[in-house]
């Protein structure tokens, strides 16, 4: 089991390094931050001084090695806009983002899994068709379209909720619903497919033939086996708590990490962008690593086949 975990941890580290490397070179190839921040009309002396201050005159490979060196020592640099520590700029927005993404995650898990199980148990009935219609709609409609539709109905026409901002808990309702509905639709679809596959297995029919109660078969045998593929989607949703809120935060003017990323990219604040990308990458990779480890405990065949022999092997 230790070999299985070690191999997954090594892959996670390599993935983080590759993503950060790709992001570093792409960001540095999109334009000169000195001109974009100071404007093209700035005096040449000011532009040159800015480049010298931020090390932009050095060759790109040297800037990259310096970035990795600082990263290894826990230094993410300073914001090119106001000189503040880049991580401090990002970390103060994290609680604001989690204030809408965590409630949305709970909605996704509760509604999505429950709806998927119900649809599978009542297959080919009006209940199943209703759940699938909800799933297809939520899956295909972009989050910004859903957000604008909710804003139009509940904020503009009915006036029940504020349209944008973050002044009170009421401002969080529409962003939470927007994030939650889309995720619940995806999870319902995958849960239904997984449940239908398990319900068709011979051991389910065997359990029923032995006189087990249908509810006991579903809860004790069908759902635990169906939870394995569903766990992948849930892990992705947990990992995308920050990244998944970028569009919704922009629609509702919610001052979280996602909106900060949009403004930092527009302002060419490279250090802040890189700090956000590091946060998003580590979060997503860590969530997937945890899911892989849980897989190893749930299904021993995985750690035997991929991570070396199980206990008792050679």
Description:
- By secondary structure, the chain is an all-alpha fold.
- The protein has a domain at 94-255: MetI-like (MetI-like fold).
- The chain has helices at residues 2-28, 33-38, 44-53, 60-72, 86-91, 94-121, 126-140, 143-157, 173-199, 202-209, 214-239, 246-251, 257-267, 270-298, 300-306.
- Helix 1 packs antiparallel against helix 14 (270-298).
- Residues 306-314 have low confidence and may be disordered.
β-sheet strand percentage: under 5%
Report on the biggest sheet: none
Q: Count the strands?
A: 0
CATH superfamily of the domain at 94-255: MetI-like
| Outline type | flat
Average of per-residue pLDDT values:
80
CATH class category of the domain at 94-255: Mainly Alpha
CATH architecture of the domain at 94-255: Orthogonal Bundle
CATH topology of the domain at 94-255: MetI-like fold
Low-confidence runs: 306-314
Q: Helical content, roughly?
A: over 70%
Number of helices: 15
In N-to-C order, the SSE pattern is HHHHHHHHHHHHHHH
Which structural traits does this protein have?
single chain, about 325 residues, mainly alpha, MetI-like fold, 15 helices, disordered C terminus
Short description:
This protein is mainly alpha-helical. The chain has helices at residues 2-28, 33-38, 44-53, 60-72, 86-91, 94-121, 126-140, 143-157, 173-199, 202-209, 214-239, 246-251, 257-267, 270-298, 300-306.
């Amino acid at each position: 089991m230790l070999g299985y975990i070690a191999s997954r941890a090594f892959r996670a580290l390599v993935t983080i390094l590759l993503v950060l490397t790709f992001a570093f070179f792409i960001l540095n190839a999109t334009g000169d931050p000195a001109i974009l921040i100071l404007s093209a009309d700035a005096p040449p002396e000011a532009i040159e001084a800015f480049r010298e201050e931020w090390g932009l005159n050095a060759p790109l490979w040297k800037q990259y090695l310096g970035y990795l060196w600082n990263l290894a020592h826990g230094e993410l640099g300073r914001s090119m806009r106001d000189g503040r520590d880049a991580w401090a700029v990002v970390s103060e927005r994290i609680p604001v983002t989690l204030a809408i993404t965590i409630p949305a995650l709970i909605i996704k898990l509760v509604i999505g899994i429950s709806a998927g199980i119900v649809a599978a148990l009542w297959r080919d009935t009006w209940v199943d068709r209703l759940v699938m219609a909800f799933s297809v709609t939520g899956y295909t409609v972009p989050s910004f379209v859903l957000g604008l539709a909710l804003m139009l109905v509940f904020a503009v026409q009915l006036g029940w909720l504020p349209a944008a901002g973050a002044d009170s808990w009421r401002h969080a309702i529409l962003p939470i619903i927007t994030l939650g509905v889309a995720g619940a639709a995806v999870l319902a679809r995958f849960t239904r497919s997984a449940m239908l596959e398990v319900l068709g297995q011979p051991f389910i029919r065997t359990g029923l033939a032995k006189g087990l109660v249908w509810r006991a078969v579903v809860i004790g045998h069908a759902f635990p086996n169906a939870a394995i593929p569903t766990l992948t989607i849930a892990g992705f949703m947990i990992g995308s708590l920050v990244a998944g809120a970028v569009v919704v935060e922009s629609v509702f003017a919610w001052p979280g990490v996602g909106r900060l990323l949009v403004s930092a990219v527009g302002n060419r604040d490279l250090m802040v962008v890189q700090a956000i990308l590091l946060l998003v990458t580590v979060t997503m990779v860590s969530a997937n690593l945890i899911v892989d480890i849980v897989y190893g405990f749930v299904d021993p065949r995985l750690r035997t086949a991929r991570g070396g022999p199980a206990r008792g092997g050679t």
